Amino acid sequence: MMSLEQEVLDIGRKLQKLVGEETPNNEAATDLLNRLKELPITLDILQKTRIGMAVNVVRKGTSKEEIQTLAKGLIKSWKKLLDGQDKSKIQRQSSQDKTDSPSLNKSASNSSFTRSDSNSSVSSLNGKSSSSKSFPPSRSNDPIRNRCREMLMNSLKCEDRPESDAPAVATAIEEAVFAVFKDTGSKYKNRVKSRVMNLRDKRNARLRVLVLDGDISAEKFANMTAEELAHDDLKKEREEITAQAIKDHQLATTGGTSTGQFKCGRCGKRNTTYNQVQTRSADEPMTTFVYCQECGNRWKFC
């Protein structure tokens, strides 16, 4: 039988998947939120599963009023759990202060941290993320996966999106990568490293924003090719190299003049063709490109 924590995690994953779909399934989202409403979710489950973040993403990503109302209701009820914990801790701390006056400064400090932790938790439920120290990505039982999630989270930090939920996005990306390979072998590690390198590329800041905003879903980002991940300048450069390669190939294989004047340095034969192109200024001699019909070798003759 599935435990409460596992059931909540499963619902969270399904909600994140629905948000990433091009055509939102409002009926499925409504059913999942109603299931959450019926479950006896505790503060411990909230902190372990980070379900509040997933619900808030759904709330912000839908235009259907019914779903927004359900999501807001859940978040409001969960905030009460946090507020209740905060009050309980403060009361216990106050009682301890009265009986243990020498530790007054220490108690005040602890009370301050309690309020800070509670405010941070409420902030996350409202969609306002805090620092990575307060809210790291959700943990798994595998230290390698946890390390990969932390790397992704640190790479997603963006000044343009200070309130973005980088930990939740990092967790979703790692889970999508793991779903592809089913293990943490070299292919899994290389896939994560390539995502991290592209996210950290200062020339590719737009990619970070698109991933944080959800314009590129975690599943799509986890499976993007190197060409798709590249920044605009690199894409343009690759296109120019490809175009030049095609042009050079066509130049060498079509319209060339057959000649035995040139000897191929690779195969030693003289079955060649050549083309002449004005690659420099008009007062400079033309450049001769030679192509070997035997082995396909091509060179420039000056």
What is the strand and helix layout of this fold?
Elements: H1 4-20, H2 26-38, H3 43-49, H4 51-61, H5 65-99, H6 104-125, H7 143-156, H8 166-181, H9 186-200, H10 205-213, H11 218-222, H12 226-229, H13 232-253, E1 257-259, E2 272-277, E3 287-292, E4 298-301
Antiparallel strand pairs: 1-2, 2-3, 3-4
Spell out the key features of this protein.
single chain; 302 residues; alpha+beta; 4 strands
Q: Could you characterize what this model shows?
A:
This protein has 302 residues and is of the alpha+beta class. It contains 13 helices and 4 strands. It has helices spanning 4-20, 26-38, 43-49, 51-61, 65-99, 104-125, 143-156, 166-181, 186-200, 205-213, 218-222, 226-229, 232-253, and strands at residues 257-259, 272-277, 287-292, 298-301. The chain has a 4-stranded antiparallel sheet, with helices on one face. α2 packs parallel to α5 (65-99) and α5 (65-99) packs antiparallel against α6. 25% of the residues are buried. Mean pLDDT is 75; it is low at 100-134.
Mean pLDDT: 75
Number of strands: 4
Radius of gyration: 30 Å
Net shape: elongated
Label the structural class.
alpha+beta
Tally of helical runs: 13
Beta-strand proportion: 5-15%
Q: Order of strands in the sheet with the most strands?
A: 1-2-3-4
The secondary-structure element order is HHHHHHHHHHHHHEEEE
- Termini separation comes to 78 Å
For the biggest sheet, the summary is: 4 strands, antiparallel
Helicity range: 55-70%
**Regions with little confidence, pLDDT below 50 for 5+ residues:** 100-134
